[in-house]
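Appendix B. Raw example, untouched.
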Amino acid sequence: MNYDIIESKDDRGEAGERWREVICIISYKPLFKLLLEKNMTKTQLRKAVGFNSATLAKMSKGEYVSLKTIDNICQFLDCEIYDVIEIEHGSVKS
């Protein structure tokens, strides 16, 4: 989880700090776009890089996969991490 410090005032109007949770979601949209550009399927990528179908399913659902898997994908596709994932900022909880 990520946290930000936000300034707030208490009931008496005095300044203070409190923490709020910032939700960040990893998206694999850049990877899927890159695969389309390279005319490659997700299954072809999975077989070429050597990760299992459960990992592919996690990626398709926007779930966490290991950094090692992402690194292997980047090496195979000869690209940078920002070509594979992006961070989407979700709702904020105070």
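End of appendix B.
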